[in-house]
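Internal ticket #5521
Category: modeling
Description: The requester needs a full-assembly model to guide mutagenesis choices. All entity lines are attached below as received. Residue total reported by intake: 490.
Assigned to: D.W.
Attached entities:
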Amino acid sequence: MSEKKFSKKHEWVSLEGDIATVGITKHATEMLGDIVFTEVPETGKVVEKEGQAAVVESTKAASDVYSPISGEITEGNKAIVDDPSSVNSDPEGASWFFKLKIKDKGELDSLMSKEEYEKFVAENPS
Amino acid sequence: MEIQKTALYNYHKNLGAKFVPFAGYEMPIQYKEGIVKEHISTRTHAGFFDVSHMGQFFLEGDETLINSLEKIIPADLKSLKINHSKYSFLLNEDGGIIDDLIITKTEKGFCIILNAACKDNDIKQISKFLDKNHKSLLNNELSLIALQGPKSVEILEKLIPGVSNLKFMTGSNFDYEGEKIYITRSGYTGEDGFEISISNKKVEKFVDFLIKHNVKPIGLGARDTLRLEAGLCLYGHDLNEKINPIEANLKWAIAKKRKETGGFNGWKKIKKLLESGCEKTRVGIKPDGKIIARENTKIFSTDDKEIGIITSGTFGPSVNAPVAMGYLNSNFSEVGTEIKLEVRGKKYGGKVTELPFYKKSYVK
């Protein structure tokens, strides 16, 4: 798998061939708190870069998860639908949200590296 | 208006609290462990809540004070014994709820605990009915700490011997560190517990004791999930000035005698509703599956007619499922009725359910 790239909306993406895996960052889970509900997109759904793709809810509020890149969904992670709290424990590993067939690899260039993302988080505390 | 802080603000900060503005105060929404763990530790052990933002309003006066208060509060204050408390309301002329409250009879008069967001207006509304010989004071020198959970009694008894003798919704003065503190057996979580009114100067030391006994600090986040599981209303969400106690399914909180004899704001309307029923009713709602129906979620009948709205909804950690309450057209309010909930443009199933979602364990 390629190195992870990060969005300003706190999603990560990693690429294997032309299939990208997308999840939310550890920092995002810390801001959200206890995750109690997730909704992942259905296979075949076409998503745009920065378009709404999934939902994550904590005890406090519901938030949209955006796709950092355009493409067609190949799989939603059923495991996080069955056990939403698993997103808190392994957000950047087993608890990814969805996989998609990437439309334009060039879109990855607009995303941040791990170091850039960490700097972005430090400079934009919320 | 400048944002206010309770006497424990820095204490919360040191405990790792995340703050949010709430009713004009900077209040902890959660601490390091998070809402679900705070919720569970309250249900299984004990937690403490700083609720010092709430108004502690004291009234003194002769027997005419009761007549004055009974014009705006539909409780039977004449029969209320000293050191006994009642859940009640301030009502407007249309029977709408200006605030919900706990009123306790004291030796000299009454103490009323008011919601933080409402307290200034509440005092204005109450004062309309007071005479010159009635004294009143919103005491900002006092903090209010709620200690809630099954271990509360065992822990507090160690510090304040005698509290275990209190029954639910009664209180008493106790000695602590050379001052009198007032403790009631009450709360807002569905658990056994106490509310402790203590001077701002002594409150840190008191809370230190609780923390030493492994009592966790609990923020507003878990306070909300706990009270919703217990089926208790939150003013400004489940109750407001346009909703009356009959619609709110709180007619039990209007004293029997007062229902018959009246003499309080909105009685005509309330009497009529007691006889003929009302168009909408507050109910508990359990969404199917894991979907969370939050405040303002529209409720539909199975044949897609809009029949109500959710006023509180979250995930209930102890029932391990989403829980909600809201107002439904009374024709659909029977327990077991199937309904639909519109979340993010899609309709999901749900059922009208009995309240509370989580069985209360008060010591009566």
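Resolution: model delivered.
Comment from assignee: The two ends of chain B are 42 Å apart (CA to CA).
Ticket closed.
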